[in-house]
Batch of 2 targets.
Target 1
Amino acid sequence: IVFLNSDGEVEIGKELLQRRNEKYAEAIVNFLVNHLFPALENQMGEGKSVKIGIITPYNNQLCTIYKYLKKHGLEKNKCIKVGTVHSFQGEEADIIIFDTTDVDIYPSQLITDKKLINVALSRAKELLIIVGSKNYLTNPKYFKEDIRQIYKRIIEEGEMFVKGRLILFLFFHWSKNFLYFTKFKMASWFKRIFR
């Protein structure tokens, strides 16, 4: 589990659920290009397929992420799928990046409903990366205690990975020895987060 602390500004369209956050979208694509792809280069070069899913609560944010993928020539990359929480129900990917989008705004049920949070977080088979604002996700002004506790545990677990340890983890991760360990760790992690 990795937590990328990022701030930004939410822009709202004509309707309340038409939200986007440019900084989050940019942070996600920069993380893919500068950290994730270089770490996975050996696996991808050997013909192993790695599925990466980027989940966001809002369609406008989905479009914003595509805009940044396009800037890097990645919009047609078959190993990347970008979708909303609802479109990922029943699907999985090796790596999931969950973009919470909201910051300093009253959150929608898309990031406060336990079932939807569970859908977003449980799609990862191997690695889960969450992008959000630590201060926002733990703020009692915006979130009830039970939801704050879920995000607090995610942040605490996710901040344990510093850049160097993440790259090392990704390098060794796809070997057969670590695959079983990681799946076990993900299952036990969910039990701790949603207790």
Target 2
Amino acid sequence: NRGGSGTANGMTSWSAANLTLQSGANLITVTARDAAGNTKSTSITVTYNSLTVPPAPTGFSASAGNAQVTLGWNTVTGATGYKVYRGANLIASPTVTTFTDTGLTNSTSYTYQVSAINSVGEGAKSSAVTATPTSSGLQTHCESNPSQCGYPDATNTGIPAGTSLTLVNGDMTISTAGAVIDGKDIRGCVTVTAPGVTIRRSKITCGGFYTIHVTSNAAANGAARLLIEDVELINGDNTTAIAAQNITAHRVYSRGGENGGSFDNDVTIEDSFITGIMEVNGGHGDGIQIGGSATNILINHNTILVHDVTSAINWTDQTVSMTVQNNLLAGGNYTLYCPRVAVPSGAFKTLNNRFGTYTYGHTDSCGNTGQVFTGNYSDADLSPISP
């Protein structure tokens, strides 16, 4: 059925040339003919996978910090994920091209490799890199210039320099699964109703309730996540920048609005900058607020500067699995509000964050039953912070 043909000779086994298999299912029909011209046919299906394992990632680098090492590498075309090794041990299987290994011992050297994977299998490992975490040499007062200390800010998030944008006037609803929105200047709010959508290298200016809203239809039954990369969000006074579930966001620059994010479940936000949060008309402003059951939430290596509002991160209820790690957090009455109820052991983790200025305190309720609070320190003098 793929267009090939050939002549087979033999009785119980045969071979035929010029049958070029194509990727996927190939239906091959064999017809037997005797001397009297009688024929009989039968068919077999041969599935051919033209893919090979992906090559080793290139551009692999390691950056040491305080009790942690941040790894990065170039995207491998055709890869569906990656495997990160510390020495001979597999320690993570991310789907993005960064990973931060936390909870390490300062002044100890660690060696890493990364490989790419696809449906065929795992490719070769990259060349090895070595890094030694240390608390010495860390800068203080990074709140005033986050990127100088290796944190996200306006200089390394949002739309990459030189990107050409096409103007789109009005609100946008994305209802096609797997759609890619790239290089747009959207003057309106975006609603995502289909799974597996990508929004990248775009600017969205919205004065409505949500700048980007993922509906339940786009998150049902384990659907593919919305991916937001290298996007700038300009939010109205009462606007929530990103909501609500089944989202992965990288290098987002969000400014203004009442909330930088309002998340329920299955959300990863990394390497992003949230700032300019405001409180108007009796609302309370948070860099990120959490709702639902707080299941599978990762807030990693972001800068969240909120100043005179409620919090940088706010979640005070029951939690299934949520981790806040490697962030620069500043502002709010209390910068981080943690669950005020007992949670399952390890369900809420606060790891290796740098805390800046505040009104009343760095944290509220972050020492309650089931929480893990370790490696967190002050931006002013690098002194450890207790929950």
